[in-house]
Every structure is written in C-alpha cells, then in structure tokens.
User: Fold these one by one.
Assistant:
Number 1:
Amino acid sequence: MKISYPDHLAGTPDHAEIVFQSVGRTSSAAAPIVLDMAAVRWIAPYGAVTLLLTCRYLTQLTGCPVEIDELRPDVRAYLDRIDLFDVGRAWVRMRQAVDPEFRFGLWPRWISTESVLLLCHVPAPIRLCPRFDA
C-alpha cells in the first residue's frame, strides 16, 4: 500500500497533528506500507520525530517496517545525519539503496554540524524523579 506523505513536517508543530490525524484513520493496511515522500521539501526536528512515530505506528499496525520512497537527497542526508534510520531501524527503511559515499555527503559529521540534534533510543522506563512516581 502506497501512501502519499504530505509536506507538513517543516511548518509549525500544529502540522504534526494533521499527519497524526490522517495516519490515525488508517485502521487496517496491507503490508508493507510505502510512504511516498515526493511532496516533502524539508523536515524540521519535530517533523523527524513525527515521521518516526508515524512509522512506528504503521509498523505496529501491519507487522512490517515502513518503506520510504521518493525522498529528496537533501532531506535524506538530514535524516541520515540525525540517525533516524539507525534509531528507527525496526520501523523504517529506505526503499531504494543509497550509494555509501552519499551517506554523509551533504550533512557530514563536521564540527559545523555539531549543533544538529541526533535522535536516540531511550529505553523505558526511566525514572528521573523517583519521589514523583505514582
């Protein structure tokens, strides 16, 4: 099943709600699901989390990781740079192979990109303030 993903990942965080509402209407789907990302021009940090949560939900729904297709090279480089495909490897993968030399070609791990926030897996539960746990 191929789903066209809207260009709502770089506007305001309210746009994430639009994505969640449209994905929430997917009560059953044929596996694997392919997200057509041709319309997506850029992804803000909250948009990357939105995409990852979308893929996680659809993977739980179908039992198969989501495949991403038609992703712009600059957006792909950014998602690689923030480790989306490593952190979300159980839920999301690229449909087309990428040349290994491209992987960090546009967003290399240089000192100038150290301010880019990386996604990371946080195992649950983490107890930051045990005295406030119910």
Number 2:
Amino acid sequence: MGWKRNDIEIDSSVGQLSQGVHPARCVKSEIKDKKSGEGENLVLTFESMKGGEKGRQVRSYLPLDDNMRWKLSEAFLALGNERGAGIAQENFDGKKCRLVIEHEDYQGEPRAQIKKFLPMAEEGEFVEEGTSEEGGKKPEKKSSGGKKSSGGKKLPF
C-alpha cells in the first residue's frame, strides 16, 4: 500500500496567473543587483486578490537605470503614490494596484509577465482600463517633469 499524509494542506497559490487584469497587493519590494552585475533592479512581488487565483504570486524586475525609468514610474503611480514621494519601501509594500498579465514563452513554456500596472479604483475596487466608475472616459494625466529623490537620482515623479 502507498503512503498517505492527511496533515498537509495543498497550497492554492501554486501556479501562474491567467492572462488578463488582476487586482493585486505588493507583498515584498527589494533592490537587488542585476545578474549582469551592472546596475540594480527594484524587484516587486505581487499577490493576486482575484477569486480562484487569490494568493498566486508574480514578480516584476524594474531596472533602476534611466532608459527604463518610465516602467518604474508606471508601477509607482499605479500603487497610489504621489509624484515626488521618492523611492522607499513603504511606497510599495502593502499597496494595491491592477496588473495586466500576459503569457510569454520562456524556454518553451508559457510564463506570466506583468505588461502594465494600473491604479485601483476608489475603495479598493477595480474597473476596466480607460473608463471611470461612472462608465465615462477618464481624463489623461500629464507628466509634471522630473524631480530628485534623497538619493540624488533624477526621477520622473
């Protein structure tokens, strides 16, 4: 007869997120050196808050160099931060946004990738991109230009 363990609960967070828009919470943020050894990434770990995929995680590696600053800005603002707030752990950990997830092939297997960061609607709810809760188009926001953080790096927020 085979083995049996009734005291182990199966983790429902195993598996990747499906394609689409997912409300999510940033559960961890850290700065790590790039594998190449040249520069750093802000690594954000998000946990889905969506139905049967609740608890599943996905990571985003945001380079801290000038040519990818737009992506860092997108995540920063989608998490509800104000322009000029600066890059700090408290501006990421525990905050919510919506993630647009698409699957890309990685070594022959589909892998969930964050393609876009979107803000949450009021009171933690989420709406489809490009519409307000009332159903009308949202006005587009314009960038107010770059500001400097306490670290002295020029930031676009």
Number 3:
Amino acid sequence: MYIKFEAMKHWKKISVFSSENTRFLVAVGILVFAFWVNLPSKGREDVKVIKSVASFGAFWEKYQPVIYLGIDSFEKKDILDSQAGDAYRLVFGARADDDQIVEVVARSQNGKEFSIGKFEIKKESDGGTFEKIFVADGKYQDLIFKRNGKEVLPESRIYIYNVRLTRLERVSNLDKTIFGKTDILNVGSFDGDAYDAEVLSRKGKTVSQFVEIEKGGILFVDMKIEKVGNGGGGKYRISIKDPSKEKGKKKYLKSLNFDSKSLGKYAKDEGLYRFELPVYSKNGGKYELEISNSEVEVDSGNYLKLGGFGDGQESFFNVIATKYYEDSNGERILTNAVFEDLGSEYLYCYENNGYVTDLLDVFESNESLQYDWFRNSLRNTGKKGSFYTYKIDTVKPFKSFRIEAKQLEIEKDQIKIEYSFDNENWKNLTYVQEKNGPQIFDHSFSNEGNHDAVFIRVGYGDDGSSAFGLEKFKVTAYISK
C-alpha cells in the first residue's frame, strides 16, 4: 500500500504557515552559507585546528532549482583551498525534473579547471546522494556544478543541496560513508469505518480508520473536505492513536483541533487540506486515525462533507509518512547526519535541516513541540520545564564531541542546553549573549568512558516569555578507528 510520493516537486506547497496562503515563501530567500571546522591531527585535544570541512546548500534547497533555463551552472567561490596532492571527499544531494548529467569542476583564480567527475541525475521525486573522492592536481578555490550535454527545456530544472567537501588524509582503504536519509511516502488509510461523505452532519460522530507505516513516522494527514453552510459551530478534532492499547484506553499520540472558520489555513489545494500531526515511530506498525465532531454543533445544512482517497474512494485519510534508516547497531541515523572515514579516524556530523523532518529527529519532548514554517525551525511552548531532547548516536565510541547552537529568538537567558551520557545525569553548557543578540553555545568535551551516544536537551530557562527553539543546532564528533 506504500506509494512513492511522486508529488515531491510540489513539496513547497506543504509550507502552510499562515491563513493568508503565504506557504510558498518557505523556499524563498534561501541563505547560502559556508563554515569550516578543522582537519584532525594526531594528538589534537579538540576539534579546532585548521580548515578541512566546508558545506553549503541547506536541505530545504532541495525544492529550489539552481540550474534551469538560461542558467547552466551553479558555483560557490572560495570553497576550496587545495594544493597539488590534496585529497577530498565531495558529497552532495541532487534531483532533476528530467534525466540530466552534471559535471563538477574545481576552478583556480586564473580560470584553470579541474574535472572532479560527471554524475547522472535521474528523474526521481526524492533525489539522490552522490559521493566522489578525488585528488587535486594544483591550487583551486572555486567549486562549479555544470549542466553537461543535455537539451535544455523550460522544465529541465536541477536542484543541488547539502553540498559537503571534506579534506582527507588518504584516498585508499576508506570505509563507506553513512548518510542519514529519510524517505517520504504517501500512504492511504484502510479498514475501520466505511466511507460516508455525510457522516459529520450527524452530531456526536467519530470517523476512524487505520494506517500502517514502516520505521519512521507520520508527518501530515491529508483530508478532502467540503464546507457545507457554515461548516458547523465548534472545534473538530483530528487524532492519531495507538491501537495496541486496551479498548477504551487507546493512547492519543497527537491531536489537532480546528474550527470551520480556520479551515483555510490548512489548505493545500482546492478541496484538499493538510494537517501537521508528527508522530515518531521507532518500529513502525499500525496507527488509528480519527476525526470527531463531538464538540461541534452540526445539522444537515451546516457540517463538513468528507471526500475519499483511493480507487474506490474508500479512504477518509491520506498520510504523508517517513521511512528512516539505521546503522549497524540498529540505531536511527538522523536526517542530514554523515559518518565518514577521514583516514586515521572517523568524523560524525549532524545539523538541523531547517525542514519539517527535524521534528522526527527529536528523541523526546514535552509540551507542544512544533515546526515553524516561517522560521524553518522547531519551537516549543515557552513554559518552565519545557524541553526537547536529541539522541546523537555516533555509531562507535567517540574521542571528542562538539555542540554548536544558536538561539532562535533574541531573549535574555531564555534557553538552557544540557548534555548527558545516560539521559539521567546532566551537565550544563555555557553560552555567550551580547546585548540585543541571541544566545550562542559552543562547547567541546571528551568521552568520559566508552560512550557511543550523547543526549542533548534543549530546555526553557528561568527567564523569558515566548516559545523557544534553536535557529542552528550542529554536533561534530571524532571517532577512533
């Protein structure tokens, strides 16, 4: 029943963050950024030495083309600083609206070009990850992605994102790079209540059906809805429940209340509405979906009429779900995480995507953790005791670990960040905060034992009055071979 989600090229439309239909702004104004951490060397105490890793192109640029009609290349200046004999690993994500070939070249200040490789970009809804190890033959500064030998049509668009360039100690006998990946799947509901378009015209009704997903989670629930009359007065409720619980005690995993007046803010297309109901599922399984009008005054002239999905229109609900991948220890590899072999040691990196899949990278949380489409960040309720926690699994025991974070808001002492090796005993991270500026965290520590996982808890501090979150969250760890 799993169907690969072929409408991903229109995924920008998911960005429903206001009732004024401004959801298409999410993919606009993308900030291209570059940052560097340091090349590992023997005897190094922390991760701050010389420039070795450069990256640019955020995950959400996956839905913003960089090569299209009239634009045949995409370049990043001063991303390299190579000498003859220097080894690098290039990793990038790409997708295209039709089959394309992209050549990646390095360019020197005097215009000399060095071909790193040619890559076949297949027409795929979810794109692919490409990797190339190369040795520079001279001094180069710029990195260029070129369309190569393909007829250009108006719809021939190429998307380049999550570009990563790592300096290596050698090019032979390197282990395979592990990438965090989250597939997007389109899953219909089944079983449960038979389809009845007018069921919500009768007071006190709950419609229930089931969905089965793989390891991963649920992001959105789609419904086809037609407002009849004023739609009814009061709050409708959409819920996801765990059907493994005893009858009458089913656990409500996530619920969303809305009234007919605010229905427009959830509109995806005409007659189609998308509700954000993220649920993480470590092992996958069957979940129950329901919509209830128990708190709504309805009659035959004022209610929400339901449409159906599937060939026989038998499904009330259509679920946008995710499938994640695991490492050799059976631990989830977070989206956008990379575990790579540098030669004498491994490097693990993870940073937030600035995309809704960030919700499913969270290990646990309380209160109402949500994805803010306007800010492209997670936000939790501004309430003392509120928190959300990441579990960073480094695959193997690490030597050194670095946490970098930047507060989303500008509010004094609003956030506290702690880390733990067991999710019980916590240590606080210090931060700096200039006047009228965000809190900036940058903390490195070594392994206190043989740990291969770190829990990082983002909590609400003693002060502050608004919802809290992080604009930037990044971890880097070096692991011995």
Number 4:
Amino acid sequence: MTKIWQNILCHCPKYIDCDIPIIYIYNNPITSFSSMKRRNKGIWDTNQRKLSNNNNTHLSDENLLNLMIKQFHNWTDIKRDNVLIIKSDELFKDEIVNKLDTFLNTTLKHFPIKYVKTKTELNKEDIELFEKYKDEIDTINEKDKDKDKIDKDKDKIEKAEIN
C-alpha cells in the first residue's frame, strides 16, 4: 500500500479525472458503516476526514453516513469508461475474474477471493439513523438489482447472437 493510496485515493470522495483504470467498490451502506464504526477511532474519524476532504470536518455517525452516500453518488451517477463499479460481494464470485481481466486488459490471479463473514452490530441510534436515510440507502442497494438485471439482459443478448 502506497502513501498516496492510503492518504488520498482510498475513500476518495470524488472521481479524479485521469487516464488509468479505476475500480470503485461499494457495499450496502449499513454494512460499510458498521465496519467503520466497529473499528473505532483511526478508521471512523479518518474516513470522515477523507470522505469530506477536510481535516476539520464535524465528526459524527450521521456525517459519516451522509459522506458515504455522497461518495457513492459522486462515483456512480456518471458513467465513465475508465471506472469499473462493482459491489463488494462480486469479489467473491467466479464472474469477477473475467470482469476484472477485461477491464484491466490483463490476467489476474487469486480471484475470486474467499469470503469471510463480518459482523454487523447495530445499536438503537444506528437503527434510527438508518431509518432517517432509508430512501438513500435503498437507492444504493437497489443499484445491485438494476445491475443484475442489466447483466442478465446482456447475457441473453450475447447468447442470442451466438445462436
């Protein structure tokens, strides 16, 4: 891991116009939020600073969730040829190998990766926060269903063209 990756690119709040392939990996915001919160200071606070691009940002659970939602839209609302958008669970499926090889124009090894179940621990305040942002969270989680439908439609078209 390089310093530029650790300090700038990982959890980058917005797309950076460049000519290299970029992979944006997202997850259910509740799972991601829980992961950051579970790891306490050092992750919870640092990621808010990165996502806001502001060392003096107001640190709170609501700020973190808001920033995560903004980041998702900043990266996914505009299609870019050099950005591959994948949901984290795709990394654990066989189909990821072809997707990554095609996008990166190479042959990767060690994919798919082994899935390790994580804990999602929520308290009353977390649940209330997620209720407040239910529509935004649902929009992110619905993207998966839209993407799955598009992928299935593409597969049908490709099979029809072959026959």
